[in-house]
Design brief:
Elements: H1 2-25, H2 35-54, H3 66-90, H4 102-111, H5 122-150, E1 156-161, H6 165-176, E2 182-188, E3 198-199, E4 202-206, H7 211-217, E5 222-225, H8 232-245, E6 248-251, E7 263-268, E8 271-276, H9 283-303, H10 305-318, E9 324-330, E10 336-342, H11 366-374, H12 381-386, E11 391-393, H13 400-403, E12 419-421, H14 438-447, H15 450-465
Parallel strand pairs: 1-2, 1-5, 2-4, 5-6, 11-12
Antiparallel strand pairs: 3-4, 7-8, 9-10
Helix pairs in contact: 1-2, 1-5, 2-3, 3-5, 3-15
Length: 471
């Protein structure tokens, strides 16, 4: 409820800002408050809140990827804008002098809009401000929730059944994003040899025979059943027991790797079928993405001219060797290209090896630490973008020797151009190597859109400020 109230206040502020903006650009015959604008505000408020509710903006479960929340907000704002625009057109008041029943006239005054007295662009400006204000207040709200979770307030205690690969993957996600509010208490596993030990730092508390005891003692809210290859009847029995205990149960299904891609469920009579969806990226979307790349990269190269003059001088003064670091990377469809960066390591140590994971790595120069921390070392890659070898948003380009170890599913990340920034770069997983978090890239490949790109570009500066920006 508190989130709904805050959203309503943000929508009210956006409407005020939209109204004042219209007054600057257009000459209107009416000032607010007045019935015309009051009715318009009510329509905007009701439709926007209803759209938020229908599209899951008030779900208590937050995604580990913050970008998903902002992308959903963008879709909601766009849909609500289109709906309100249609209503403004359809609910125009009848021309003066037209005959209507008195009851209909009263109804018109309540719900119809006098568009002659409403400034043109009111709805457009309102929804522009609405996206910014709601995104800002939800960002602040999310940070407050994170701080509460960090202090142990509002935690949802989690138990994972199965300490195998799937279970360890779930634990990894919960550890990477501890402030989402899921506090893992441990594993249950029917392998007696594991009971009493720890798996990647998490205790194996007991077997599934003790499920009821641990749920009660540890005050568990959610149980993840992560035994996708387990016996079907055993899994169903575990689900029944969890439901009897009143806890939420989440199941990692068989073929869970396939389900990381967008799929739809179809039926052949009574038999459910999992059908992978085809990539819906169109030529027009690709052309628009390329146009955005050219505009941003071209403008950035011009604005960064002072850096391209000063940074190489400082690099050369501190250590011998070239100012630019050139390295073969693998791009779209497996084609190799030469990626550019400002050199941040000693020239004799800048070979084809895994990149430094900490600023204390002896290969990094003193000035190189600053370049990496601020991501200034990435600026030359605007040239790669301009040349069409990279994009502003996409998976980070990897070195050939790492790509050689890819599985067939991993190679899906090569179906799009690599990017300067992306989902991985703005996530908590940024603290771990790229190749250890390919699922972020695979998610982007399967869900890519202009809106998602724009959201990632907007969030990248915030990631840089937090020290988790692109490298």
């Amino acid at each position: 409820m508190s989130q709904l109230v805050v959203d309503a206040l943000a929508i009210y502020a956006a409407f005020l800002a939209g109204y004042e903006t219209v007054q600057l650009f257009y000459s209107t015959n009416i000032r607010w408050p007045a019935s015309e604008y009051n009715i318009l505000f009510i329509w905007i408020l009701v439709i926007t809140i209803a759209t938020f509710a229908v599209m899951g903006m008030y779900s208590t479960r937050k995604s580990l990827l913050n970008v998903v929340e902002f992308e959903r907000l963008g879709k909601c704002a766009l849909f609500a804008f289109m709906l309100v625009s249609a209503i403004v057109f359809l609910l125009r008041q009848a021309p003066a002098g037209s005959k209507a029943h008195p009851i209909l006239t009263d109804l018109q005054n309540l719900i119809f809009l006098d568009t002659e007295h409403i400034g043109k662009g009111s709805v457009v400006f309102t929804y522009g401000y609405l996206f910014i204000l709601v995104a800002a207040e939800r960002f602040v709200f999310f940070k407050l929730m994170q701080e509460a979770h960090r202090r142990g307030i509002g935690h949802h205690h989690v138990l994972i059944i199965g300490a195998g690969r799937a279970g360890r993957k779930i634990r990894e996600k919960l550890i990477i994003s501890p402030t989402v509010g899921w506090n893992m208490r441990g594993f249950l596993d029917d392998d007696i040899n594991l009971v009493g030990t720890s798996v990647e730092g998490a205790p194996v508390l007991g077997t599934t025979d003790e499920l009821e005891q641990f749920v009660s003692d540890l005050k568990i809210h959610t149980v993840f059943i992560s035994i996708p290859e387990g016996d079907e009847f055993k899994i169903l029995e575990l689900v029944r027991r969890c439901r009897a205990l009143g806890v939420e149960v989440c199941i990692v299904p068989r073929l869970w790797h396939i389900l990381t891609y967008p799929v739809k469920i179809e039926r052949l009579d009574s038999i459910p079928l999992i059908v992978p969806r085809k990539n819906s990226a169109r030529i027009s979307v690709a052309a628009a993405k390329r146009a955005i790349d050219i505009v941003i990269a071209g403008a950035s190269l011009v604005l960064c001219i002072p850096f391209f003059i000063l940074v190489p001088i400082v690099i050369k003064l501190e250590s011998s060797g070239p100012a630019f670091f050139r390295q073969r990377r693998v791009g779209k469809d497996g084609r190799e290209f030469e990626m550019l960066k400002f050199r941040t390591m000693h020239a004799e140590m800048s070979g084809d090896a895994l990149k430094p994971q900490t600023s204390s790595d002896p290969r990094i120069t003193k000035f190189g630490k600053f370049l990496r921390r601020t991501s200034v070392d990435e600026m030359p890659q605007f040239w790669n973008v301009l040349m069409g070898e990279m994009s502003m948003v996409g998976p980070r380009p990897e070195m050939p020797f790492i790509v050689e170890s890819y599985t067939e599913s991993d190679r899906a990340r090569l179906s799009v151009k690599p990017g300067i920034t992306g989902l991985w770069q703005i996530s908590y997983a940024r603290l771990r190597p790229i190749h250890a978090n390919l699922d972020y890239d695979l998610y982007y490949v399967e869900h890519q859109s202009l809106l998602l790109d724009i959201i990632i570009l907007i969030l990248t500066p915030f990631a840089l400020v937090k020290g988790t920006g692109a490298h």
